[in-house]
């Protein structure tokens, strides 16, 4: 099968495929059952697998995520949907203190085949409590893995791989991507779950990004090609672990690095990426590495300000121009 | 009740006391570090509850869990070695006093964050219910934990989906140093469970037989499919919250009043203890091992030679546990990385 599929549908198909092949897979969260999921990811699964495997929960993020941890310890393979990443703050004890630590604290006795799916990011005027990402928090939790699919193809395989894995994995899904379509070829073999991908090869500058911002970076790179700039775009696909080899190889080729992220730049994913690449390939850089990130403020409700608070395709293009054509710095 | 069962319960209570007092000594000697939360005074709870459970039932515990692990059957040397942080400890030295785990015995961990045991327990309960297995989960927590949000969230879900969980509140009246009247608007904890339509009762936690009986009945109801059950077990800890806590917030008369009623000490003393008469037992009211030993003597089950022999065996067992812990090697970083990546298997990450 190879056809244009929205991300939500790719995730839905992935859930269905894993649930039909393994009875120990179940999903739970607010409105995942009868309602079919806020972003349709669990659509039709309730009718197909029944309420024990597709469980509508009370609004109790801390405990239903912890419930999944306990169920994973007892041999099930839970997939938790936290309605938005913002509510995951209430579940961080379960994710960070429990899921990420139990395999270790038990001296390796307990597997943790847990997946926590979280829609997030800045969507459309949802205001400060519904418009953030938590990668900076989660990236700091040793024992967790984090996948950040940006395409239907990646959503499809990364969710399936996450469900099959025995490690606790957080899947950060971007709310603006659910209804964006792309090619889904279910016959293609999966790349390793945490390998980065070069979405566009280039020789002048490397943009490293992930999730929704990787798509904007790609768009910016395509437009800049008409100005004679050949930009390489890396989609990380994973924030823990990070595929450093892919990043290092690219910087060694282009000698210029820009990291684009939607989250606040302060102490975020971009900080980690730039610091590590400075350690690994400082002599290869022809100019200081830069970050383009969301502003260090809660997301404003006002649409104009909201747009101004996070990177846009135009902003990415401007930053690249400044980096490659120093005379243009304003 | 059979004599063997009673003897084994008495044995476990004496072991619990001896093990914990020895752990305190080893802490002062510097062999045990970190936080050490001891159980003396509360033995009747662990013993009463866990002797009522089946081997297939799961146990989820708190940071004060050494005795839960011991009574569950985790060998004393594995527990002691874990307190010492050694490789042969039941968590390989990665968990320590607050994080004892034993997968084989379904001992699903001690947790250092108050309020974490409920979601773990309902998750295991969910797994049992989904697969329709004849098993149950026993979830321990203290009175300080009933003010966490997870208490309400988890009890609600357990009741909603009729999960096979026995909630056991070890009410020792103190959340670290804050007395229950100062931390709970509703001090009768069992009544909170009634708010979620969970059958709930208060049990005298100084009476091991009462705890055992209540547990058996509750587990039986769980196995009949009626959903979660709740026990509030009233008990008392003789020591402070942890080794770093002298417990100065409690009046001496209060601690002494409970200690006076504690027959474990009496049994462990060199002289042959003078067991109380039935009427004296009645008067004591909330005693624990006095009830057990009194009952056993009444039934003709117990002679002082039994106690003496048991005491000797336990003393050797605890000595052996300490030797084992002392001689066990330190884990190295290789062990630490292996514990972290225990579940990675053959996956290719990148």
Quick gist of this model?
Chain A has twelve helices and 14 strands.
Summarize the SSE layout with pairings.
The complex is a heterodimer of chains A (330) and B (350).
Chain A: E1 2-6, H1 7-21, E2 25-29, H2 45-49, E3 54-56, H3 61-73, E4 77-81, H4 92-99, H5 102-105, E5 115-120, H6 135-139, E6 145-147, H7 152-164, E7 169-174, E8 181-185, E9 197-200, E10 205-209, H8 211-224, E11 231-235, E12 238-240, H9 244-254, E13 257-264, H10 269-281, E14 290-294, H11 303-309, H12 313-324
Parallel strand pairs in A: 2-3, 2-4, 4-5, 5-7, 6-7, 10-11, 10-13, 13-14
Antiparallel strand pairs in A: 1-8, 6-12, 9-11
Helix pairs in contact in A: 1-7, 3-4, 8-12
Chain B: H1 3-28, H2 43-50, E1 58-61, H3 66-72, H4 76-83, E2 107-110, H5 117-130, E3 137-142, H6 149-160, E4 165-171, E5 174-175, E6 178-179, H7 180-183, H8 189-194, E7 200-204, H9 208-223, E8 229-234, H10 252-260, H11 263-268, H12 278-284, H13 289-298, H14 304-327, H15 333-340
Parallel strand pairs in B: 1-2, 1-3, 3-4, 4-8, 7-8
Antiparallel strand pairs in B: 5-6
Helix pairs in contact in B: 1-2, 1-3, 1-13, 1-14, 2-3, 2-9, 4-14, 5-6
């Amino acid at each position: 099968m190879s056809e244009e599929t929205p991300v939500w549908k790719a995730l839905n198909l992935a859930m269905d495929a894993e649930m039909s092949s393994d009875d120990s897979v179940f999903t739970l969260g607010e409105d995942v059952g009868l309602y079919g999921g806020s972003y349709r990811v669990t659509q039709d699964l309730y009718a197909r697998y029944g309420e024990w495997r597709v469980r509508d929960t009370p609004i109790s993020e801390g405990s239903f995520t912890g419930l999944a941890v306990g169920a994973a310890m007892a041999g099930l393979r839970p997939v938790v949907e936290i309605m938005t990443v913002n509510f995951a703050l209430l579940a961080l004890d379960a994710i960070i203190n429990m899921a990420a630590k139990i395999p270790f604290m038990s001296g390796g006795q307990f597997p943790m085949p847990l997946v926590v799916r979280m829609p997030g990011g800045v969507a459309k005027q949802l205001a400060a409590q519904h418009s953030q990402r938590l990668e900076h928090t989660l990236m700091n939790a040793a024992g967790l893995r984090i996948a950040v699919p940006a395409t239907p193809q990646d959503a499809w395989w990364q969710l399936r791989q996450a469900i099959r894995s025995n490690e606790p994995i957080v899947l950060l899904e971007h709310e603006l991507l659910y209804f964006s379509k792309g090619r889904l070829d279910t016959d293609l073999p999966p790349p390793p779950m945490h390998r980065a991908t070069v979405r566009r090869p280039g020789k002048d500058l490397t943009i490293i990004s992930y999730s929704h911002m990787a798509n904007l970076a790609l768009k910016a790179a395509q437009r800049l090609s008409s100005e004679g700039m050949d930009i390489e775009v890396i989609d990380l696909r994973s924030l823990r672990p990070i595929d450093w080899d892919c990043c290092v190889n690219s910087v060694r080729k282009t000698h210029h690095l820009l990291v684009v992220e939607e989250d606040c730049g302060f102490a975020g994913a971009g900080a980690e990426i730039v610091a590590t690449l400075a350690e690994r390939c400082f002599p290869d850089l022809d100019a200081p590495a830069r970050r383009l990130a969301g502003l260090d403020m809660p997301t404003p409700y006002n649409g104009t300000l909201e747009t101004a608070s996070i990177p846009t395709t135009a902003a990415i293009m401007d930053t690249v121009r400044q980096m490659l054509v120093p005379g243009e710095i304003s | 009740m059979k004599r063997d069962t009673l003897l084994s319960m008495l044995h476990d209570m004496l072991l619990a006391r001896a093990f914990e007092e020895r752990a305190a000594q080893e802490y002062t000697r510097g062999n045990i570090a970190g936080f050490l939360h001891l159980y003396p005074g509360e033995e009747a709870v662990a013993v009463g509850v866990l002797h009522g459970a089946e081997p297939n039932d799961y146990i989820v515990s708190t940071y004060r869990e050494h005795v839960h692990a011991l009574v569950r059957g985790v060998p004393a040397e594995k527990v002691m070695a874990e307190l010492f942080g050694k490789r042969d400890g039941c968590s390989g030295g990665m968990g320590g006093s607050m994080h004892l785990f034993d997968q084989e015995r379904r001992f699903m961990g001690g947790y250092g964050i108050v309020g974490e045991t409920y979601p773990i327990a309902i998750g295991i309960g969910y797994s049992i219910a989904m697969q329709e297995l004849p098993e149950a989960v026993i979830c321990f927590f203290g009175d300080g934990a009933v003010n966490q949000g997870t208490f309400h969230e988890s009890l609600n879900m357990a009741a909603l989906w009729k999960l096979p969980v026995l909630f056991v509140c070890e009410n020792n009246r103190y959340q670290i140093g804050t007395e229950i009247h100062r931390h709970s608007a509703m001090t009768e904890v069992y009544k909170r469970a009634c708010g979620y339509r969970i059958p709930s009762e208060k049990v005298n936690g100084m009476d091991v037989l009462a705890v055992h009986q209540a547990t058996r009945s509750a587990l039986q109801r769980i196995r009949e499919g009626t959903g979660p059950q709740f026990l509030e077990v009233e008990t008392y800890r003789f020591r402070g919250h942890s080794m770093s806590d002298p417990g100065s917030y409690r009046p001496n008369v209060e601690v002494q009043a409970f200690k006076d009623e504690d027959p474990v000490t009496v049994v462990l003393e060199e002289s042959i203890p003078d067991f109380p008469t039935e009427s004296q037992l009645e008067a004591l009211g909330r005693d624990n091992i006095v009830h057990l030993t009194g009952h056993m003597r009444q039934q003709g089950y117990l002679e002082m030679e039994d106690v003496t022999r048991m005491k000797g065996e336990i003393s050797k067992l605890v000595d052996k546990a300490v030797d084992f812990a002392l001689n066990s090697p330190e884990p190295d970083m290789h062990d630490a990385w292996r514990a972290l990546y225990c579940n990675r298997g053959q996956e290719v990450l990148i």
